[in-house]
Specification:
The chain folds into three domains: 2-143, no CATH class; 163-328, no CATH class; 376-564, no CATH class. Helices cover 37% and strands 14% of the residues. The chain has 21 helices and 21 strands. α10 (177-185) packs across α11 and α17 (422-438) runs parallel beside α19. It starts with 9 loop residues before the first strand and ends with a helix.
Length: 590
């Protein structure tokens, strides 16, 4: 009906009478033409008819007995061409905008079907956020074809495969591998404990994985570890004391000549990686830093278990050098907080967290230079999510998208777009968060952070960096838990922070180091508990050792008497609950 009436003056009126037909007749007597928009039509149901004449199409939004009424002044009819050629008046468009803002999304679809084409085009041009989803997407795809075609044609381009399969490693095994592992163990391989034997075999498999990874990068290598055996010893050469792999032919993607392979095994019952033991960062005899290549292997307790389950694949975590640690320390040194990057162990041992290992390059393609970009509302309706791609490419935040990123996150955007590898991204997010906590900043939102970092088509690798252990996702989860409990944690009392691993955050106050966020290392019925996160303030600390007590299994710290007592009590409680459940099942069966 609306298509037969001119739209040079379209107004929204209010009708307090519950009978729309009577109001329609009343307005007609006043010499005006009006169109009622019935609530039933909004739901896709034909409006009721009365007598021989169909009641005018109505999308009345009934709120009590209030209904929307559209009054269209100028009762003369026009041809479709003349009608669509006339522009929509500002007053008419403003009334439609008010109606769209008031209606729910489902009701907007009904109103949209009743609007003239000229009104729809005006809304799409100036108020795209109010239009229904389908016509909004069609309009935007036609208006910004370059952006849409590029986003739809994207392909993820990962680094050379960093997952070295068990079959590939098996094909590279040498007859003298067992002899080399025995040398590492200080005696005959059969004399080693089952745990030590499988641990050393896993380390040798990691070295084979390192050679295969370098070969896939296009570089030839030499197995320096074999120099420990008399059959392969080179007089006067002790390179094997400094590194394991020598890169014979350099490659642009592999700038390191000397590689020290460090293997770590997954936490039992979990896909998480523990810290990697790196006693010292060494220098090669020819000069230059020795790059530490981190490898992640499956966890097995014995050779027999490995034969049953298979040794599994080896994941390449990336490289870490003395220069990497120095660069990260320099970045933290400019902030009024102290962040421990390496965890001390027994003797001279030092442990490096997995997030400090990285590989250059990105998995995501860089966006092209585009002359036109949709505004924030239009980008939201397109559902393309290009923000992470722009940030990963090191681009500045486009002015048209400023509304999508709150003011507090703009400095973080500028810092993140200069990051090249996982360690830099991880430390930037962490230090930005800790600085906000120490100065009681009320602005932080994990949802905003995810919108900047997570591309839905590749949700594991944030910002496109190589992150096989999902350290960034785990970090955001830990920070979210800390943010929710920030009032009870009183984090300003900590002057130093350290992360023994991605699931464990500690702060140093007057009483020494305290756990802020951690995970449970206890066992439930011979299986790891692994509850995470345990947050100080949300979970209680043990009265004996001070560690956070798990509410699931009662575990806190190994060898803690209070913790052992809680674990025993929880075990009895679970046994009693199972017995009660068994008795109930027996009663029901009988």
């Amino acid at each position: 009906m609306t298509d037969d009436i001119s739209t040079d003056a379209l107004h929204l009126g209010w009708c307090t009478d519950a009978d729309p037909v009577r109001n329609f007749i009343h307005l007609q007597r006043a010499g005006e033409t009006s169109v009622f928009l019935h609530a039933r039509q909004l739901r896709g149901v034909p409006p009721p008819t009365r007598g021989r004449r169909r009641e005018p199409l109505d999308t009345t939004l009934l709120q009590g007995d209030v209904a929307f009424v559209f009054e269209l002044e100028g009762t003369h009819k026009r041809s479709p061409e003349a009608r669509e050629a006339r522009p929509v008046s500002v007053a008419a468009l403003s009334q439609v905008v008010v109606a769209l803002e008031t209606l729910s999304w489902s009701q907007r679809d009904g109103l949209w079907r009743c609007l003239p084409e000229s009104v729809r085009e005006a809304v799409l041009a100036d108020h795209i956020g109010l239009a229904p989803a389908t016509p909004a997407r069609v309009h935007l795809r036609a208006r910004f074809p370059e952006l849409v075609s590029w986003m739809q044609g994207l392909t993820i381009t990962p680094h050379v495969s960093t997952t070295i399969t068990a079959e590939a490693i098996q094909s590279r095994k040498r007859p003298d591998d067992a002899q080399l592992v025995a040398v590492w163990g200080g005696g005959d391989l059969k004399d080693l404990r089952p745990y030590d034997r499988i641990r050393l075999i896993s380390a040798r498999r990691a070295e084979h994985a390192a050679h295969l990874f370098c070969a896939a990068m296009g570089a030839s290598t030499k197995d320096v570890s074999l120099q420990q055996l008399s059959a392969h010893a080179v007089p006067g050469r002790t390179d094997w004391t400094q590194f394991d792999v020598r890169v014979e032919t350099p490659h642009p993607g592999l700038p390191h000549r000397a590689i020290d392979v460090k293997n770590t095994r997954k936490i039992r019952g979990s896909a998480d990686a523990p810290d990697i033991c790196v006693p010292d960062f060494k220098r090669a005899r020819q000069g230059g830093d020795v790059a530490v290549l981190g490898c992640l292997s499956e966890y097995q307790r014995s050779i027999e278990e490995a034969h049953k389950q298979g040794m599994g694949d080896v994941e390449i975590l990336g490289f870490c050098t003395q220069a990497t640690v120095a660069r990260l320390r320099a970045g933290v040194g400019t902030l009024p907080i102290e962040l421990h990057l390496q965890r001390p162990g027994r003797g001279r041992l030092r442990f490096v967290p997995p997030w400090m290992f990285g590989l250059p390059g990105r998995r995501w393609p860089a966006p092209p230079e585009l002359d036109r970009l949709p505004d924030a509302a239009g980008l939201t309706r397109l559902e393309l999510h290009p923000l992470p791609l722009w940030l990963a490419a090191g681009r500045a935040l486009p002015p048209a998208w400023q509304e999508l990123v709150p003011d507090w996150a703009h400095p973080l955007w500028e810092r993140l777009r200069r990051c090249k590898e996982l360690p830099d991204v991880y430390l930037t997010i962490l230090t930005d968060f800790l600085m906000r906590l120490t100065r009681d900043d009320a602005d932080w939102d994990a949802g905003v952070l995810r919108s900047m970092l997570v591309w839905p088509r590749d949700p594991v690798h944030l910002l496109g960096v190589h992150d096989p252990t999902r350290a960034l996702l785990t970090l955001i989860q830990a920070l979210t838990a800390m943010w929710q409990e920030r009032a009870s944690l009183r984090l300003r009392r900590y002057s130093r922070f350290r992360l023994p691993n991605a699931l464990w955050v500690q702060g140093h106050g007057r009483g020494g180091w305290e756990t802020i966020v951690s995970y449970c290392g206890g066992m439930i019925d011979k299986a790891p508990c692994g509850r995470w996160p345990l947050v100080r303030g949300r979970q209680t600390a043990c009265e004996t050792c001070g560690w956070l007590a798990c509410p699931t299994c009662g575990h806190c710290k190994k060898m803690c008497t209070a913790g052992e007592r809680r674990v025993e009590e929880e075990s009895h409680r679970r046994a009693d609950a199972r017995e009660v459940a068994r008795l109930k099942r027996g009663i029901w069966k009988s």
